[in-house]
Amino acid sequence: MLPAVPARLGRRGLAIGIDIGGTKVAAGVIDVHGQVLAELVRPTPATDPRQVEDVIVDLVHEFAASYRIWSVGIGAAGWMDQSGSTVLFSPHLAWRNEPLRENLEYKLRRRVMVVNDADAAGWAEWRFGAGRGQSRLVCITLGTGIGGALIADGRLERGRHGVAGEFGHQIVVPQGHRCECGNRGCWEQYASGNALGREGRELARANSPVAQDLLRAAGGDPDAITGALVTRMAAEGDATCIELLDDVGHWLGLGLANLAAALDPGQFVIGGGLSGAGDLLLLPAQRSFRRHLTGRGFRPAAPISMARLGARAGMVGAADLARINARTGTRGTRPAGP
Known about the structure:
By secondary structure, this protein is α/β, with parallel strands linked by helices. The chain has two domains: 7-122 and 311-328, ATPase, nucleotide binding domain (Nucleotidyltransferase, domain 5, 2-Layer Sandwich); 132-307, 2-Layer Sandwich (Nucleotidyltransferase, domain 5). Helices cover 36% and strands 19% of the residues. It is built from nine helices and 13 strands. It has helices at residues 49-64, 100-108, 117-128, 193-205, 212-217, 227-235, 239-263, 279-292, 313-328, and strands at 15-20, 24-30, 36-43, 71-76, 79-80, 87-89, 96-98, 112-116, 136-142, 146-152, 155-156, 267-271, 304-306. The strands form three sheets. Strands 3-2-1-4-8 form a five-stranded mixed beta sheet. It has a five-stranded mixed beta sheet with strand order 11-10-9-12-13, with helices on one face. A three-stranded antiparallel beta sheet has the order 5-6-7, with no helix packed on it. The protein starts with 14 loop residues before the first strand and ends in a 10-residue tail after the last helix. 48% of the residues are buried.
């Protein structure tokens, strides 16, 4: 049951933000200042699009029973068309040309805005977090894969067909690790939470003596080693896990240097679950970025900062974008600034 709502919170402007990831659906009621007033989490039924919709509908109804809701925004882990009506493809969910907005509006009987989840997180960091006010911001979300967002002069940039910002699928190692997108050697195969877990599992399966503590922490089962476990043990001082994070940081910095060459942002913000590693990830990324930056020493280098809003960024950004679009009456995924 949601908490009782003071009368002052029943004002116009409250929005629901829902962040749909590969493992969980996180939802919250967000006010005009980006504050989370209530939140709920459900597992993601990743193999069934209809069940995902049902989870969303249940969450909206539960919030609407206690809050006067002005708008609903969905951050979806997938490639959107320019109109924001269809999820064209998701590497980690079962969406293929899925008319998600239309389906949800039919079931909810209210307008819904659907955006890419990384765009939602990037927007939140630009509006309320580490990139606030930056004229050209690139936000990278590190989780199951790598998501990306570019905010330029107060607008989300999605490209001609709506699928810009898929930075995780730039190829950094030709013929490298197979990626869920169908290609090989994508950046997210080397600089994501999944990549960190895979490297830990491979080290444990090789029966390396330096991986014995990690293997013990996983109960002797290499398959139980995840990026989250490696990150936790690195924070506790495990030398092997610190080294694994350092490797991921190297790849992160290399990819950021590629993006700097193409986009010349004023700032990079790093979010997502893996950003919880803090300096253990940030410092090697900064070193690698400086090493690989084109024209290094003769051009400004964009600072790299950790996100401030944490795991809530996606829901906060989706809610804020939906509120702005409801106010302006637009439907696309490239809103003007508030």
